[in-house]
Every structure is written in structure tokens, then in C-alpha cells.
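[09:14] KT: can someone run the structure on this one? pasting the chain below
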Amino acid sequence: MKKIKKALAFVVPLALASGAFAQADFPNRPIRIVVPFAAGGATDVIARVVGQKLGTQLGQPVVVENKAGANGNIGAVMVARSAPDGYTILMATSAHAINATLYRKLDYSLLRDFTPLSNLASVPLVMVVNPNVPARTVPEFVAYAKSQGDKLNFGSGGNGTAAHLAGEQFNTLTGTKMQHVAYKGGALAQTDLMGGQIQAMFANLPEVLSQVQAEKLRPLAVTGTSRRASMPNVPTFAETGFAQLDARSWFGLFAPSGTPAPIVAKLSAALVQAVADSAVQARLKELGADPIGDSHDAFQKFVAQDVPRWGALVEKSGATVD
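[09:31] RB: done, C-alpha cells below
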């Protein structure tokens, strides 16, 4: 027994010292950002812009891996079950806050299974239509949609995304009956919108800005309290008489729950610095996003409030995953 106690007295401090050294040495290999949506969408683009600068900040490569499916849930589960060592992190969005109440059963909890690192940016939603749609304003579109009954379709990057809920809310507020078509990412929905397979979309601004500027898509209104500098002639929904339509998408990074506090602090601080970089700020704004780059504590409080906020909208809109 004495020998065992002596062995433990030697091994335990050594193990603790080894863990502390590993945390102090973090990172000593590449970091992986899992984007749970298809490449080309706003989530993917923002992750790559910030991830590149994060790698510079930490002195290690940051690799972005797309793991699309089930409205972001497949990638989220993968990260939740990964080692809590800071080397695999999740690029989550407001869709994950929505999923918490949209799905009756999930294999993870955003609040319990993840540690928020930093909210990188938020973007407004813009309602865009195929140029063949005979409407140039929201009231004109409402009249046209009502004349078509339930024949019009609107797309989104997946069931339960902010774009999906915005479309359902639009139906509720206007009395229209558009049918929702879910895709595995905003970029795929945009392709079908331009092709005429769907007629409308409530898109994250960065996903469709270039197509709007090229006049391949027609914008009708944007969420938020003010017009966007990139689209000065596009009114806000408030200006069109629908102030209730104010949904925005956010994009933030999370580590698996149980990640050591020193690693969380280091990642969070590096992300704050990365988003504050002038080149990153310029690129995010160019994409139509509003940079945030807040701390672990601030983001944690935000997420705790955002999940029930979206839950109320899910219930009110009647949105489902069916």
C-alpha cells in the first residue's frame, strides 16, 4: 500500500504537469474548423476568411472541412463527440440555435455540449426573386403570390435556418402560401433560384450579393434597421410595412464542452484579434456581413438568450422539419 501511495504521489503531479504543458503548448498542430454546410455559402466563406487569419495569429494552419447534412446537425454531432482539446471546432450559426426547438430530438445540445468561443459576424437577410417574377417591390410580390395560390416556392439553406423561418413568417404576415424547399446549403438554393426552379429566397446577404449586383437576382427588401451600403436602393422590410421581419443570421465558433479553460481563453482571444484585423473587417463588410468578434463570456450570454428567442419564433411561425 505504501508503495502504491508513493507511486501515485509521483504519477499524479506528473500527469497534471503534462496536461498543463500541453495546454501551454497549444496549438502545436493544425486546427480544424468543421463547417456543417456545403461549400460556397455564407457560413463557409466567413469561416475561411476568419480561419486564415486565426492560423496566422496562432502560428498553425487552420483547415476548413465541410460536413453538410441535416441542417448543420451532422457536423455539430461530429464536433460534439470529438476530443475536447481545441483542435476540432464548430462553425455554428443561428440555425443551430433554432434546431434546439425545431427538432423534437437531437443528438447534441448547443447549450450543454459546446463552449462558445466567439461570435464572428452577423448578416441581414435579403429577399430575392428570380428576375422573371413580375414583382419589383414587396407589395407587388405579395399580390402576385396571392394570385398564384400555393404554386410559388421559396428556398433556403435548410430546414430551420433563419432564411426558412423568415419565409414562414412572411407567409404568416402577408397571407401568402409559398411552399418551402430545403437545400443542403444556401449556395445550392441560389443556383435553383437563378434557374427558375424556385421563385424566391430569403438569403444571407453574402451568399447572393454578387448575383444581385450582376442583376441575376432581384432584391426586394432587406432585414435590419437601415439600408445596406452595398445595396442602397433596396428598402428595409420596415420601410415596406413589415417591420416584424427582422431576422438576422449569426456565425460563431464553438469548442466541444470540456475543452480546458486555458485553451478556450486562447482561442477566444485569438479570434477577437483575428476579427479586429483591418483586412478581415474589410473583407467581411465587402461580403455584406457585420463583424462582431466578441469574447467567450459575451458570446456565451448571447447564445443562452438566443436559443429561447428563436424557440418562440419557431412556435409562432409553425415551422417544422417535415
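[09:33] KT: thanks! The beta strands are 31-35, 62-66, 88-93, 114-129, 153-156, 179-182, 200-204, 218-222, 248-256, 290-291.
[09:34] RB: yep, looked fine to me
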